[in-house]
């Protein structure tokens, strides 16, 4: 069972396109998500985006998430498939504001998560970690997948 969803919003000094590329590259998640030990892509869609990812989080939590993308609306959602009590459910929504990106990040955590695990999954903290990381990277890191 999952607990109630919390959310946070912040403005990131990168374009929505750069944030979208960074956010939807599942191989980059362990770099900026505190407590995430491993993310392994299980299934990829025809668009090259991960459809299912297996995670090892904190000291012992394991689960997989299924992702859906709305590229036109710059919205990604994730739902647990395996390990629902350890997992999370959530979304990220991006929008252009004054040459930057307003990102809203929502997260609902599984009831098997300890207080320490829950603090690592705080939406405001995760959003701040993403913003710090993406703003510290060269713009060339987020070129379209077809150009890499």
Task: Summarize the structure in words.
With 148 residues, the chain is α+β, with helices and mostly antiparallel strands. The protein has one domain: START domain (Alpha-D-Glucose-1,6-Bisphosphate, Chain A, domain 4). It is built from four helices and seven strands; from the N terminus they run E-H-H-E-E-E-E-E-E-H-H. The protein has helices at 16-23, 29-32, 115-120, 123-136, and strands at residues 6-12, 36-44, 50-57, 61-70, 75-82, 88-97, 100-109. Strand 4 (61-70) and strand 5 (75-82) form a beta hairpin. The relative contact order is 0.25.
Features:
4 helices, alpha+beta, 148 residues, 7-stranded antiparallel β-sheet, globular, Alpha-D-Glucose-1,6-Bisphosphate, Chain A, domain 4, 42% strand
Brief synopsis:
The chain contains 4 helices and 7 strands, in the order βααββββββαα. The chain has helices at residues 16-23, 29-32, 115-120, 123-136, and strands spanning 6-12, 36-44, 50-57, 61-70, 75-82, 88-97, 100-109.
Average pLDDT, rounded to a whole number, is 90
CATH architecture grouping: 2-Layer Sandwich
| Count of helical regions | 4
Helix content: 10-25%
Strand content: 35-45%
Q: Supply Rg.
A: 15 Å
CA-based shape: globular
CATH fold-type name: Alpha-D-Glucose-1,6-Bisphosphate, Chain A, domain 4
Number of domains: 1
Judged by helices, strands and strand pairing, the structural class is alpha+beta
Helix and strand pattern: EHHEEEEEEHH
- Regarding CATH, which class? Alpha Beta
E-strand count: 7
Distance between the termini: 40 Å
Under CATH, the homologous superfamily reads START domain
* Biggest sheet strand line-up: 1-7-6-5-4-3-2
